[in-house]
Amino acid sequence: YFNIIGFGSSCKSLFPETVPYDEQHLETAVQHSQEMKADLGGTELLNPLKHIFEMKPRAGYARQVFVLTDGSVSNTDACIQEMKRNVENARCFTFGIGSGASSALVNGLAVAGNGAAEFVKEGERMQPKVIRSLKRALQPAVTDVSCFSRSLKSLK
User: Fold this and answer.
1) What PANTHER family does this protein's entry cite (predicted)?
2) For the whole model, what pTM was predicted?
3) What is the pLDDT of residues 112-121, one digit of tens each?
4) Is the residue at 102 inside a domain?
5) Neighbours of 110 (CB within 10 A)
């Protein structure tokens, strides 16, 4: 299941809810992504994140959030906190595109979301980095891990 949400001063979903990853929906998504323009105003990410986390998750499927940005936001900490609040239900993989991408935002969201960050410089191919992140996203997330040791007295 997947969806594409464009964001700027506002946000807009391609589909009203997540849809099955099938030939029909993929064709629609590819066409949409080829026609996408950065025409939604500034870089306002908090509301799109809230929108994503308000959407009902699909039972049996992990939510993977991929954020692509070429800018910065005025509320980086609030965006990171929103990701932290939802980390039990989602992982976040980020892409900073070009020299204007905020490293604090891109790295912060990825760390908060137990994902990974990638940066794409001018003239650099994005495809290998996207493939690397997709492979990471397909790896099962480890949750509720506890470690015990009889030989260690303290971990101060």
Assistant:
1) VON WILLEBRAND FACTOR A DOMAIN-CONTAINING PROTEIN 5A
2) 0.83
3) 999 999 999 9
4) yes
5) 23
